[in-house]
Amino acid sequence: MGLLSKREIYRWLNKELEKRLVITPILDPDEQIHEGSVDLRLSTTFILTQKTAFPMMDATQGEQKLKEEIQRYQFRVSKRPREQFILHPQQLVLGATLEYLAFPPGVGGYVLSRSSWGRLGLIIATATFVNPGFKGCLTLELLNLGEVPLVLYPGLRVAQLVLHSVCGKPGVHKSRYQFPTEPEFSRVYEDEELAFWGKPKDSAF
Amino acid sequence: MNDHVRSSAFLKADQIFEHSARLKILPFPSPNPPLFATFICAVCEKLKARMSSLDAGDRETTLIPIFLVDQIAPTLRFIEGASSENTPASLVVPVERIGEAVLPGSKFMVRRQWGYNYSVRELRRRLEEDLKGLLPDAEHTTLFKTLPERLFAISFPSFERDNALLHVNFAHEIAHPLERAYLTQEDQTGVLQELRNEVERVIAEKDPVRRVTEIGANVGYAARMRQAALMEVLSDTIAAHVFGPSALFALHEVATLSRSMDKISADLHPPWRFRLRHILKVLEELDFLDASTFQLRGWPKEIPASISHVRGKVDAWLYDLHHITELTTDIDEINQGFPQKQAYDSAERALPAVQKFATESVAQRYTPTLFSEEVPGLLERLHASLPPNRIECTLTNNRDVSLASILASGWLFKLGELAPLFSQDRHAYVQRVQTLNRLVLKAIQLSEIQTEYAKRPRKQDNGTAKQA
User: Is some CB atom of chain A closer than 8 A to the CB atom of B119?
Assistant: First the structure.
C-alpha cells in the first residue's frame, strides 16, 4: 500500500471507465490535483441539528425509534451556488463533497481538511477513511473549532483526498450508504450488535 | 361597524404580510419565489396604508378585505411550495431557463402541489387587474414594476419531487401559455362558422324541431373541445421538440394512471391514446423514431457492450406502445359522439398548422445528432452507477452535455435496464430507481455548475484575467 503520486492519480483518473478512479467533476485539474492529493469542493446541501426537538442521542435504543428520533433531530438546508452558509464556532453540520467519487477496488483514500481552512478552525471530517469500491458523494462532518463564524460557499475547496493503492487482492466493498449524492445522516442503528451492548434488560452481565 | 370592517381588513393585510415575510426567507433554488414574496409583502403594505387613508363609508373598505382573502392569501401556497426542500432543486433553474426561452420576458416558479397533476398558472395578470380599483394609479404602476411581465407558477405532484424523469412534463406546461398566441393567429371566425355548419347539419338530420336551442350550445361545446385537443397537442409537440423521446416516456407514465385511454376527460382533454399517437408522429418527424420499425433512431453504429441490451429493451417497449396507439378505440369513441366528432374533425384539419407553430416557437431544440453524440456515453455512466453529468473520455478530454440528454439517458436506463428487474426483485427495483433519480438530479446540478465554472475569468501567466 502506497500513497498515490500526482502521476499515479492521473493514471487512475484516465483509465477505461470500469477500472477508473472517478472524481467528477474535477472543475480545474491544475488547481485541484496535487502531488499526493486531490482537492474536493463543498456541495449545496447541509444537515443541521435541531437540538430542542431531541433530548439526547442514544444509538442503542432500537432501529425504528432511533430512525424516528433522527428525523426529528435533523433538518436539511440547501444553498444555491454563491449563497452563504455560516458555520458558527463549535457547530457541527453535515455537508457533502460536490464531486461524486467512484473508487476502483485497488484504491482507497482518506479525506482530510485542507490546511488553509484548518488554520481558520474548519475541520471537515472525523471519519476520514474511504473504502475501496465506494461510490457516491462523501459526507463531510463540518466543525468550526475557531472562535469566529466561518462563511462557507458551495464550491469552495475545503477538503483534500489522499489516495493510496490497496495491497493484495481487493474484495467487494459493501456499504450501508449506497450511492449518496447528498450528506447522509448516521445509520449507526444498523449495527447489528448495538442492542446487545446497549439494552440493559435481559442482560447476561 | 365600518371601523370594525376596516380594522379587520387591516389585521388581515398584516397577517398576510407576516406570512409572506416569513416565507421569503426560506431557502429557494431560484430568485423568483422570494421576488414574488417581496411583491406580496409590498401589496399588503400598500393596502394597509390605503385602508388607513379611507373613510369609513368608502367602497374600498369592503373590497380590500375580500381581495386580500380571495386573491392574495392563496398565492402564498405558490411561494411555500417553491422552497428548495419542496422542489427538485437542481432542476428548477434549467427549467426556468427553458421557460424563458419559449416565452421571452416571462419568469417561472416551480412548486409542489398535493394534487396529482402538472399544471401552469399565470400569477401577475389577475392581481394587476383586480388591484387597479383598489390603489391609486401611480402606486399601482410602481408596485407592478417590481414583477416581470409575466410570472408563471408551474406545479408538480408533491410526492414525485425526486422523480426527475417525470419532470420532463414541465416542458408541456411551459408551452401552455402559447395557446393564446396560437389562437390569435388562427381564423377563429372561420373555425366557428365551419363548426356551426357541421353542428347544424347533424342536428337537422337528427331532430329538426329542437334545432334552434341546441345549435349554440353544441357549437360552443365543440369549439371548447377542439381548442382543448389542439392545445394539448401543441404542448406535447413543444415538449417533444425540447426533450425528444423523453417527452413520450413522461407522457406515457402519466397516461398509465388514467382510468381510460379512450375517453375525453371531464376538463375536455383529449384521450391519452390520441395524444400518445400524436407525439409518436412528432418524434418520427423529428427523426427520433423510425416510422416503419418503430425503433429509436440516433444510436451510434457501435454501442458499448455494457449498454447494448438497453437498445433492445427500449425498442421492445416502443413496439408495445405502437400497438397501443394502433388501436383506434379512442377515435371510435370520438366518432360515435356528437359534437365530439365534429370538434375532432376540425382539430385534425388544424394539426399541421399547430405543428408548424410549435416548431417555430422553440428556438433551441433537441436533435437526434445530440442524442447520438451524448446519450450512449451517459448511459455507460449510469450503468457504472455514476451521475450522467458529462462525457469524460479522459480527465482533460471531456464534454458537457445537454439537459435533454441527461434526462434521455435516465429514461433509457429506467426502461431498458431497470424495468426488467421489477419482476425479479421489487425491493431492489425500487432502490435502483431511487438511486437513478438521485444520480440524474446530481448530474443536472453538476452540469449547471460545470457550465458556469467554465465561463469564469481565469488568470493568465502575466496575472491579468481572461475569459475561460
Answer: no
